[in-house]
Amino acid sequence: MIDATDRNIRTLWLLAIVGCQQPVQERPPAAPSVAPSALARDTGGSGQGDLGPPQGPPIDAVLTAAPQVPPPTARKQPAKVVVALEVREVELPISEGVTYTFWTFGGRVPGSFIRVRQGDTVEFHLRNHPDNKMPHNIDLHAVTGPGGGASSSFTAPGHQSQFTFKALNRGLFVYHCATAPVGMHVGNGMYGLILVEPPEGLEPVDREFYVMQGDFYTVGKYREKGLQPFDMQKAIEENATYVLFNGSEGALVDDRALKAKVGERVRIFIGNGGPNLTSSFHVIGEIFDRVYPEAGTRMQENVQTTMVPAGGAAIVEFKVEVPGTYILLDHALFRAFNKGALGMLKVEGEENKDVYSGKEIDSSYLGDMMMPGGAVSVAAEQASQGELTIEAQIAAGKTLFTGTCSTCHQLDGAGIANVFPPLAGSDFLNADPRRAIGIVLNGLIGKVTVNGQEFNSVMPPMSQLNDDAIANILTYVLNSWGNKGGRIAAAQVSAVRAATPRPAGAAH
Amino acid sequence: MGSRLILSLVCALVLCAGHTALRADARARLPLARVAAGSFRPLLAPSSDGEPRAVSVRSFWLMTRPVRNDEFLAFVSRHPRYRRDNIPRAFADAQYLLRFETPTRLGGGARPLQPVTLVSWFAARAFCESHALRLPSEAEWEWAAAASETLADARRDDAFRRRILDWYARPVGELPDVPHGPKNLYGIADLHGVVWEWVEDFNADVMVADGRSRADTAAQNRFMCGAGALRADDVQDYPAFLRLGFRSSLQASYTTKSLGFRCARDDRASAQKERP
């Protein structure tokens, strides 16, 4: 600082002497005006992370399975924390009727959540279960030291290793197996998160959740039944069969959905194990009030979608104001709707119409579906002349279905396992086609069993569709994908609509 | 700690002296088949100047299946110091032969024709020696194991590779009686798909090193994670990757539920031919 100032002063004098004509502005030598305040905000990295020797007796770390998060450490001094993690190679469901041999830290994917405080001394025990076939180890990104613990924890089946590290850097870190071939060990589910709290702890919130994305590569196609082996070639090509939150399709839906109440602040520790794909993490219908991108110390506000790199993490926080179901997804959308990267956050509480009204206007807007000569207008034309054919109904219904219904029930009517029931070959539909009119008009909330599978979600009322449109859609559905056929007339829809009482202001 | 190490070394010397006294057992003949000589580039080809070199394997004889429980029980009965209640910890860890109901009886947990597992390298070596045989070298084992039913080197055959990888991806489970799977070109079965197997020089490759331990010489540091992937001769040979990883996690006293062995011997014809 002093040297620099001296030099500046000398430079000024020099300028004054050499270029007399040039007016030299009289001002104090330029001090680095930005740097000091930036330094003041800097948390000091690992240089400030050694808070002295551990105090008090050793503490056994609380480990939790996703989506649970251990409670805050609530400590004011550094401690010695003992973490014991057991590696298990286990066959578990990856999707409905599909199993996979996962390699896990703690028996589940992702591995157990570990929570310590900056400056803690972590005594790490890695146990490789005797029934395992593979050697394993762990590389914690929270470790300062070559390999992140990998070579110190390299362990044959039926053996255990121990190493100790001081958590110098605060933040949320991925840990993973680093035994060659690393991609295969990670691809089989060997990852999890370790949170190193800042010394003062994290700001309290009402709910904390642990969600971790991973991509999986199986020999069989998506949802092909049975035990599916790892597909090395697909992994090398980064051609994922599944992209999942918390290790299985449906890990975060229905009864297992994340839950919160209106008015609460929610924090999600979102990690990405990879091995290959970067996540575009998004919650439909919410805006992240705060994001700590890449799980670093700096905060960003008002974010819609945050990137979570493979082998990285982020912390997102938001307040929930409106009740309902919020979908967590990787906004790379084919991963969400065709590879499983979906989860749910269910928020209960009082409606808040000031924030979100629900549907207010429901007039038809069919856009280019109504263009002259299109299937919908052909059907409308025929209907107006009283000679509507079933073929025209089916054609119009197909166009309308594609625009309105396929988002959830899918273009092939297969639905989404555990979330949206199938319409294809649906025993529920075929048992009572007229019941379907009421469901389209009024929606369906709660448990329903379709083809032996129980669903428990929400279909909103589609009463904005006119009677012709609903009749055509249902006729199309009844005559598609192995359903038993049949025909619904607009008059039938009118009758059901007339018989259904609706609250004032709701669509008729 | 230091004194315990010295004690172990003394034990080792005593036991090694014992080794030489192991007499070949002529009664129980172990089934062997001849593996033809060949030259191949293993996953981690040796190199003196950065250029990977092929490894030549002389013809040798190898058991056509892994060593079985009944054979190993006979061995420890004849050589009681290899019983689990007698063997020093320096030569076998605490799980050694724990599938046997008692030190001298198989019982329900270990069928006679299942491959023996939970054996240490010391014990496997002594077993082979008692039959006037030896453990195969890593190169010999890998060369014999590269053969499919029809090809001497099937390592690039996707179906062959796939079959091996599927086994590695599953937990141990119940071991079948051996021989179990199809015989390869040489008439040898179960090099893949039943158990891992000890080789004489199992610790030749150290796959995980952080450059700090005294064992991390340049030669041994060939296989760590990214560096290993770059240097390995065939980055897609995941089965070989997995075997090297497994072997390098072992110490000679270790035993695991999925680790057995088979014995080998020199081919006298080829040995004589090689001699000047």
Describe this structure in words.
The complex is a heterodimer of chains A (508) and B (276). In chain A, strands 1, 2, 3, 5, 7 and 11 form a six-stranded mixed beta sheet that branches. A six-stranded mixed beta sheet of chain A has the order 12-10-14-19-16-17. In chain A, strands 13-21-20-15-18 form a five-stranded mixed beta sheet. The radius of gyration of chain A is 29 Å and the shape is elongated. The termini of chain A are far apart. Chain A is 21% helix and 29% strand. Chain A is of the alpha/beta class and 508 residues long. In chain A, helix 6 packs across helix 7 (390-404), helix 10 packs across helix 12 and helix 11 packs across helix 12 (490-499). With 276 residues, chain B is of the alpha+beta class. Chain B is built from eight helices and seven strands, in the order H-E-E-E-E-H-H-H-H-E-H-H-E-E-H. Chain B has helices at residues 2-20, 69-78, 121-130, 138-145, 158-168, 225-231, 238-248, 268-274, and strands spanning 32-35, 38-40, 55-57, 60-63, 196-197, 259-260, 264-266. The longest helix of chain B is centred in the first third of the chain and has 19 residues, at 2-20. The interface between A and B is large, with 36 and 43 residues.
- In quaternary terms, these chains amount to heterodimer
Task: Write down the Rg of chain A.
Answer: 29 Å
Compressed to H and E, one letter per element, the order of chain B equals HEEEEHHHHEHHEEH
Helical percent range of chain A?
10-25%
Q: Could you name the ranges of chain B where pLDDT drops below 50 across 5 or more consecutive residues?
A: 1-20, 208-232
Give the CA-based shape of chain A.
elongated
Question: Reading side by side through the largest sheet of chain B, how are the strands ordered?
Answer: 1-4-7
